[in-house]
């Protein structure tokens, strides 16, 4: 027996298990017709849906003041002034790439001054991943960019 095939307690052992076992569609006809309907198509998510879910999750994290980069926030302030204050707010600051059930997300945010950046970004990443994965998707990457820090008004 080779050295590689033996178990060694002092070495890390890797075991790969699938996270989700795909369901097996039932055969055609008979009493299983109701169950078969679930396997007759696909469920697809549009990018905007994922962006809305991720945006809501990121906004819920303490220390996050606003979402979006400088340009997005500028245009949002202009829209606010002309009475279109809700246009683009739902997805501003979040970009998603959807490939089947795999999702890559980028969140651009403004944090409150005095917050620990690493703590806020980790909390945002966790909240976004949990919120999106509740929909049966897999977040393969969640990048959080801090675009600005909001100073306290005196």
TrEMBL record:
Family of the protein in this entry: Belongs to the asp23 family.
Q: Give the matching PANTHER family.
A: ALKALINE SHOCK PROTEIN 23, HYPOTHETICAL CYTOSOLIC PROTEIN-RELATED
Q: What is this protein called?
A: Alkaline-shock protein
Natural source organism: Actinoplanes utahensis
């Amino acid at each position: 027996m080779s050295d590689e095939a033996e178990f060694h307690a002092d070495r890390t052992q890797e075991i790969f298990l699938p996270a989700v076992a795909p369901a097996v569609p039932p055969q055609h006809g008979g009493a299983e017709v109701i169950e078969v309907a679930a396997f007759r198509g696909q469920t697809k998510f549009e990018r905007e849906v994922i962006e809305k879910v991720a945006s809501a999750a990121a906004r819920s994290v303490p220390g996050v003041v606003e979402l979006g980069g400088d340009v997005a926030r500028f245009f949002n302030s202009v829209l606010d002034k002309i009475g279109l204050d809700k246009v683009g707010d739902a997805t501003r600051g979040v970009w998603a790439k959807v490939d089947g059930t795999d999702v890559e997300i980028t969140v651009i945010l403004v944090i409150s001054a005095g917050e620990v950046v690493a703590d806020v970004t980790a909390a945002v990443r966790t909240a976004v991943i949990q919120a999106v994965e509740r929909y049966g998707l897999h977040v393969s990457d969640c990048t959080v960019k801090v675009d600005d820090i909001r100073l306290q008004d005196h």
